[in-house]
């Protein structure tokens, strides 16, 4: 991986114009890794644009208060003759959350990611599925730059962005993807000025009242199957009734898994009448990425997701539960 990092560092140093982006349905690692790369490129006087065709969850907006995120349409209007694309935390080329023409027209595509499903789709790839988060990979890259150039890349803003990504992707350092290197990273970021208390308060301690009304209603749908599978369902009516955006519901997912004897938690979310998003979480032995792949989804061993199109929420649930039972 050292050679891969060196190639990326050298190419970034040679380039001038960069577009940074990530996957659909932004999360902490998505925004933390993309934002930290954006700040770094700015610091070395590169022309950089943060482009994402999706909304930001309310609990992550604090990271982006001074950042302009462009839509693909807005970026295209800039009429840049040449640009390089850096895709962070995106395990699949098709999940990059920008217009496909931008992917096709980029001079080079740099992929930095930790999803096991990643097939190294970039021209330059730094992909390590064993790492806790893409933010940890970006942190490693910045440490490499520090060593090569005898400088300190990580300032307070970058440290805070990276800390947000590693905290959220490890479930506050409780998931099995947390390694000794993860704690070393967190310690270093704290020393470098990461606003750790702000991150915890904003991400986990600032949910609106309506979110808890929705959570109560969602928990009433809880269904336990064969003692090992727990399913919670969120419908469009529930979201509308409680005035909660679809993108602000990821915090409900752990409630499916964190039940005595349950191995796999399934959160079923109705995004529209013909699009059902399903999040999978496991505790000990089920690799939920295999289940997700059966429905053209993907992710990690203990956390994965998929989308079912043109099915009712009931049928989509039955299909995924039936597949999950094969692994129990």
From TrEMBL:
It comes from the Bacteria. Residues 244-320 form the DHHA1 domain. It comes from Intestinibacter bartlettii. Residues 19-166 form the DDH domain. This is Bifunctional oligoribonuclease/PAP phosphatase NrnA. Pfam families: DHH, DHHA1.
């Amino acid at each position: 991986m050292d050679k891969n990092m060196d190639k990326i560092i050298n190419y970034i140093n040679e380039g001038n114009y960069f577009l940074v982006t990530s996957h659909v349905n932004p999360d902490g690692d998505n925004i933390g890794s993309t934002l930290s790369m954006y700040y770094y490129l700015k610091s070395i006087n590169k022309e950089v644009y943060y482009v994402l065709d999706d909304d930001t969850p309310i609990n992550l907006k604090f990271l982006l208060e001074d950042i302009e995120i462009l839509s693909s349409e807005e970026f295209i209007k800039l009429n840049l003759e040449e640009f390089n694309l850096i895709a962070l935390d995106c395990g699949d080329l098709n999940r990059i959350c920008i217009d496909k023409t931008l992917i096709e027209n980029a001079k080079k595509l740099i992929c930095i990611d930790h999803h096991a499903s990643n097939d190294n789709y970039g021209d330059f790839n730094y992909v390590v599925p064993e790492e806790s988060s893409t933010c940890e990979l970006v942190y490693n890259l910045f440490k490499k730059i520090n060593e090569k150039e005898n400088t300190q890349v990580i300032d307070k803003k970058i440290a805070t962005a990276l800390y947000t990504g590693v905290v959220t992707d490890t479930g506050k350092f409780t998931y099995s993807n947390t390694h000794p290197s993860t704690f070393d990273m967190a310690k270093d970021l704290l020393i470098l000025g990461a606003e750790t208390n702000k991150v915890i308060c904003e991400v986990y301690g600032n949910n609106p009242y309506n979110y808890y009304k929705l959570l109560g209603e969602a928990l009433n749908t809880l269904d336990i199957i064969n003692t090992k599978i727990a399913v919670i369902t969120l419908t469009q009516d529930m979201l509308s009734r409680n005035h909660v955006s679809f993108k602000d519901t990821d915090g409900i997912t752990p409630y499916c898994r964190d039940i005595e004897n349950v191995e796999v938690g399934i959160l079923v979310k109705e995004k529209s009448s013909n699009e059902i998003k399903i999040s999978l979480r496991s505790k000990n032995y089920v690799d939920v990425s295999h289940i997700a792949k059966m429905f053209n989804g993907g992710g990690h061993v203990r956390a994965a997701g998929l989308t079912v199109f043109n099915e009712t929420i009931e049928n989509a649930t039955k299909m995924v539960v039936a597949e999950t039972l094969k692994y129990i």
